[in-house]
Amino acid sequence: xxxxxxxLTGCLAPIDKGGLDALIENxxxxxxxxxxxxxxxxxxxxxxxxxxxxxxxxYIVDEPPGLLGDDTAPNPSEASLAALGSCIAVGLHAxxxxxxxxxxxxxVELEGDLNITAVWGTxxxxxKPVGFTDVRINVxxxxxxxxxxxxxxxxHVCQWSPVFNTFSRPVNMVAASL
Length: 178
Fold this sequence. Notes:
The protein is α+β, with helices and mostly antiparallel strands. It has helices at 17-29, 76-99, 147-160, 162-168; strands at residues 6-9, 12-16, 40-45, 48-52, 59-61, 103-114, 132-143. The chain has a domain at 17-22 and 75-168: K homology (KH) domain (GMP Synthetase, Chain A, domain 3), CATH 3.30.300.20. The chain has a three-stranded antiparallel β-sheet, with no helix packed on it. A two-stranded antiparallel sheet has the order 1-2. Strand 3 and strand 4 form a beta hairpin. It starts with 5 loop residues before the first strand and ends in a 10-residue tail after the last helix. The relative contact order is 0.13. Pfam families: OsmC.
């Protein structure tokens, strides 16, 4: 009996199980492979920016009125929380399919604490942490697995999430003018 082309995961749209298996195998064959991701950010005026990624429509980032923006899109910090939540959700979905767990529903709620008094380095620049100091992640997952298995799955996904790891460890950064 051959495996189905897709893995059903309750009410979530199915993912290609064969494609997932191929990604897993390729990762095992090439454990040191690195892919460079790119984004070009173009200022549109005030604090609104268009971010160009691959051949996709621009991803807009703005600031809320309290931070002098036009409130047309998430601000950069909110966008980073969205990236974290999406990365965790992708990891949970892929790992559930890999383990044969059916997900009926999945929501990841995030909130982060951020001191904004420095106003991008123009305000109170006294010594304090810049960026998120605390991020809380709450996963609501209904699946055909015991809660202990779901909790282990969440811990496993956070250990291997690229965005979670970017948040939780130092990253080499280089800024230059061209």
